[in-house]
């Protein structure tokens, strides 16, 4: 291959343009992925805090109802079942 030829220079220039374009696209994809990760991490933190608050609220309500004898034992089991299902469903998020 004659590196001084016009054909070689044209091919190299086209290749260089293609390489720059490809690298730029890769950078853009990487930045988009980083942004998505940041958004999802913030959303996950928000949901975890919400779960904690709701779990605390459930504990308080359960305690209040138990102290006044309003909630029968079978209702406690049902609440626990739903709470466990909720927590399992949201652990994968």
TrEMBL record:
<dbReference type="InterPro" id="IPR004827">
    <property type="entry name" value="bZIP"/>
</dbReference>
<feature type="region of interest" description="Disordered">
    <location>
        <begin position="1"/>
        <end position="34"/>
    </location>
</feature>
<dbReference type="InterPro" id="IPR031106">
    <property type="entry name" value="C/EBP"/>
</dbReference>
<feature type="compositionally biased region" description="Basic and acidic residues">
    <location>
        <begin position="25"/>
        <end position="34"/>
    </location>
</feature>
<dbReference type="InterPro" id="IPR046347">
    <property type="entry name" value="bZIP_sf"/>
</dbReference>
<protein>
    <recommendedName>
        <fullName>BZIP domain-containing protein</fullName>
    </recommendedName>
</protein>
<dbReference type="Pfam" id="PF07716">
    <property type="entry name" value="bZIP_2"/>
</dbReference>
<feature type="compositionally biased region" description="Basic and acidic residues">
    <location>
        <begin position="1"/>
        <end position="10"/>
    </location>
</feature>
<feature type="domain" description="BZIP">
    <location>
        <begin position="5"/>
        <end position="68"/>
    </location>
</feature>
């Amino acid at each position: 291959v004659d590196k001084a030829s016009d054909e070689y220079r044209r091919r190299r220039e086209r290749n260089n343009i293609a390489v720059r374009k490809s690298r730029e696209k890769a950078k853009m994809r990487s930045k988009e992925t980083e942004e998505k990760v940041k958004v999802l991490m913030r959303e996950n933190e928000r949901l975890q805090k919400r779960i904690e608050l709701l779990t605390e609220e459930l504990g308080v309500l359960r305690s209040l109802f138990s102290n006044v004898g309003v909630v029968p034992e079978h209702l406690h089991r049902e609440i626990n079942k739903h709470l466990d299902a909720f927590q399992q469903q949201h652990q994968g998020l």
